[in-house]
Specification:
About 40% of the residues lie in helices and about 25% in strands. The chain contains 25 helices and 25 strands. The protein is of the alpha+beta class. α6 runs antiparallel to α7. The strands form twelve sheets. It has a three-stranded antiparallel beta sheet, with no helix packed on it. The chain is elongated and about 150 Å long. The relative contact order is 0.03. InterPro entries: DnaJ_domain (IPR001623), J_dom_sf (IPR036869).
């Protein structure tokens, strides 16, 4: 009723305006211009009197004449130019008013005069007037209808264009034309413009600030979707508006829930929304629960989100994995949320993995579902037994579930299950340590040899060979299983020979895989590269993986006994090591240089062995050893004192010298780690760090041979050469402290008698080292 009342006032105002206009005609007091204007006719032309009075706009008077005689606008423009050139005539515009009226409010107060010029779109003029005077949209629509019914008013659209501009990029190229109408929120049009032209998000912010400084903007966040939704009978339900940072599924769910719409209608609505080019739907299912979880101490551990039709136990399980909440809190969440509206709660254990199994005819045989707390192998073998699958089928299914199948790896987003075993348990027994404490439960799997189970259990709990052997008889008797061997088989590998033959290689408990492969390679003439690739394959086998502690095979291992019942240690030589260096390192470690005939016998035994080759007879000092892991296997690298720290070669008529550490790093990488692009710089850097660390310890230590870079069997000539080389580097002027230590080492070792007493074995007592001196006294020093 209020809108109608205002409309009536506008109609009355329009009638009053014409009365006012007529009275104005009679009240013209001052004649400004009078003349005759020619009127084109079919027979030629005739003249018509034309007069202008004070207050009249020339273009409006000429427009009346033009319409009276049906002339075109070219005539009006020509005459207007002549009239406006007269000295007493004032022309303020060159287009006529086609409509003018006063607008009053409901109290009769005049808001202003609405004036529409020729060429103007009425809806734009009305919109500008309404914005200026804060007139509501409903009033604007009524006014537009009234104006568009006038004889001389031409309305081509009902939407007001409140902003138009061509948008250019940083190079001045036109991106597109931006038109904003009054019935649309500017930010919504800006968002679509940015998306359609693939502009960055920063462009949206820039355009928003520029445009909203010129026209009113009610919101700063766009609706990516805004539409009136109708029911199946085409009756309007309400307007669905989706803000930019809201997930469409959640907004649609809230809209349908509010209006009591069913799930089928919601599904259709989701397809409508997600097919809109401006809408990105990350998920089709809405969140029925979305809330931050805060601990008692105030720590926010993240938001728990539960989708529609998602099992509560599954959602809480995945949340607990990411947030690492306690089991008690997890249980509390299950208790509190189970039973809430919209939340599915049919079980308490999370579903970890579910895979459909196809039958041979292409149909579905069934679904293997593994729930929390279940061992995948047990679920698979129970399924296989129910459906008559073979042992190989069950074996392969376990591989798929445990994420170790090469043909069926986990899909994106799926985590492999934690599998502690790959077959069901047929026998289990608790095992206690000698002190009575419980070690664990020894489990024997289906088709498992008891010795294999004992070996796995023993290695896991650090049992020695005698302790594992003591378990064999009781386990075989208690389990009632057939025991065919007393040594565990840790792994079986199959190697394909060049001629296509496949051979099985057994890895028994206590054997180092690289040693087994080395001896197999000797029998089959395998190259170093073939052995290396085979070792990497074996040591990275996901099932029953053998324990690979080193990459280098043991070529020789000799036990050395201090007495009949006391073992001193094992002299071990790995592939790639110089035997004589290892012998002298062992002798030095155990202070055996003057222990005849052991010192010479060890060297003879080693170099006479067919397993190793002694490339030189003079030993070099092993400065340090370091280890690098590649393909999951530890590789050892020994830094042996070189003949020279710098290796020089001819290069373009001169010499090019590189440090021995670079040569050693390159050789190591080319031999062991060819596929690792970053090997050389990493190994070289590690060698340099270790070399600096060794030299710092060496200069602080008491080993005189180490300061000269020699072993204890060094000859007088070797001592002289080493001293003369080092004294040039560490002279009294540049390195006085090191120079003094070099002098001390040379004085002692160059004197045969002093050297003899220095080389005497250390008499160890309570962590001290006692040595007889040249004068018959005994020096006592810490044993380091």
């Amino acid at each position: 009723m209020r809108h109608g009342h205002v409309f009536m006032r506008w109609a009355l105002s329009l009638f009053a305006l014409y009365s006012w206009w007529g009275s104005l005609q009679t009240a013209r007091a001052q004649l400004v211009f009078q003349s005759s204007v020619f009127i084109p006719t079919s027979t030629g032309q005739e003249f018509h009197p034309f007069a202008l009075y004070a207050g009249q706009e020339p273009v409006d008077e000429l427009e009346e004449v033009r319409q009276q005689f049906g002339l075109d606008r070219t005539w009006r423009e020509s005459i207007l130019t002549q009239v406006c050139a007269q000295p007493r005539v004032q022309c303020t515009r060159n287009v006529p008013v086609v409509y003018v009226t006063r607008i009053t409010d409901t109290q009769g107060h005049v808001l202003g005069v609405l004036e529409i010029h020729e060429g103007q779109e009425p809806v734009d003029v009305i919109a500008a007037f309404a914005i200026k005077h804060q007139i509501q949209r409903a009033f604007r629509q009524q006014l537009l209808q009234a104006v568009c019914q006038q004889k001389h008013v031409r309305c081509t659209r009902t939407r007001s264009l409140i902003f138009e501009q061509r948008i250019h990029d940083e190079h001045g190229e036109t991106i597109g034309k931006l038109d904003i109408y009054d019935d649309t929120e500017p930010i919504d049009l800006l968002y679509r413009f940015v998306k359609e032209h693939e502009l960055p998000d920063t462009a949206l912010e820039q355009l928003f600030q520029m445009i909203c400084a010129r026209i009113p903007c009610e919101r700063a966040e766009p609706f990516i979707f805004s539409r009136v939704i109708a029911d199946p009978d085409n009756s309007p339900i309400g307007e669905l508006q989706i803000p930019r940072h809201r997930e469409p599924a959640d907004v649609v769910y809230a809209f349908c829930h509010h209006h009591g719409l069913d799930k089928a209608f919601r599904k259709q609505l989701m397809h409508l929304v997600c097919n809109d080019p401006h809408v990105a739907c990350e998920r089709m299912a809405p969140y029925v629960f979305n809330s931050p979880i805060v601990l008692e101490n105030g720590t926010d551990v993240g938001a728990l989100r539960i989708q529609e039709d998602e099992e509560l136990a599954d959602a809480v399980y995945h949340f607990s994995k990411s947030s690492k909440i306690s089991p008690d809190l997890r249980f509390a969440l299950l208790q509190q949320l189970c039973g809430r509206e919209g939340i599915l709660c049919t079980r308490s254990q999370a579903l970890l993995r579910s895979i459909p199994i196809s039958a041979q005819d292409g149909g579905t045989l069934g679904v293997i579902s593994v729930y929390e707390g279940q061992e995948p192998a047990d679920v698979v073998y129970a399924f296989a037994e129910k459906h008559g699958l073979s042992a190989d089928d069950a074996y392969n299914l376990v591989d798929v579930l445990c994420g170790i199948s090469k043909t069926n790896p986990p899909r994106p987003g799926e985590e492999p299950l934690t599998c502690t075993r790959y077959a069901p348990v047929v026998f289990a027994i608790p095992i206690s340590a000698q002190n009575g404490s419980r070690l664990g439960v020894l489990e024997i799997l289906r088709d498992d040899e008891p010795a294999d189970a004992i070996a796995r259990f023993g290695n896991k709990h650090g049992l020695g060979k005698p302790e594992k052997a003591n378990l064999w008889d009781p386990i075989c008797e208690a389990s009632g299983l057939t025991c065919t061997r007393d040594v565990g088989l840790m792994y079986q590998a199959v190697y394909t020979l060049p001629d296509g033959r496949r051979e099985r290689l057994d890895f028994l408990d206590g054997e180092e895989p690289t040693d087994v492969i080395y001896h197999y390679g000797l029998m089959r003439n395998l190259s170093f590269v073939e052995r290396k690739h085979f070792l990497i394959e074996v040591c990275n086998e996901p099932r029953k993986r053998p324990n690979c502690t080193r990459a280098e095979p043991m070529l020789l291992s000799i036990p050395v006994w201090e007495s009949a019942d006391k073992k001193m240690g094992d002299l071990e030589i790995l592939e790639g090591q110089e035997p004589i260096d290892q012998v002298y390192a062992f002798l030095e470690k155990h202070d055996l240089f003057q222990t005849e005939p052991l010192n010479t016998t060890l060297l003879e035994v080693v170099c006479n062995s067919t397993r190793v080759t002694c490339a030189r007879k003079r030993p070099r000092r092993i400065l340090f050893s370091m280890y690098a892991t590649y393909a999951g296997i530890s590789h050892s690298l020994q830094y042996v004192q070189p003949e020279s720290d710098w290796i020089c070669t001819s290069h373009h008529g001169g010499q090019r010298c590189v440090h021995y550490a670079e040569v050693l790093s390159k050789q190591f990488c080319e031999t062991h780690m060819t596929d690792w692009v970053g090997c050389f710089p990493r190994i070289l850097e590690a060698l340099r760090v270790q070399l600096e660390f060794y030299e710092e310890r060496m200069w602080r230590g008491k080993d005189l041979y180490a300061k000269l870079g020699l072993v204890k069997t060094a000859s007088k000539e070797e001592i002289d050469v080493a001293y003369n080389r080092l004294v040039k580097r560490f002279n009294n002027e540049t390195e006085p402290q090191k120079y003094e230590k070099l002098q001390e080492a040379y004085r002692t070792l160059s004197d045969p008698e002093e050297k003899y007493f220095y080389d005497l074995p250390c008499m160890k007592l309570f962590g001290l080292c006692g040595k007889k001196k040249k004068d018959g006294s005994i020096s006592i020093t810490p044993d380091n």
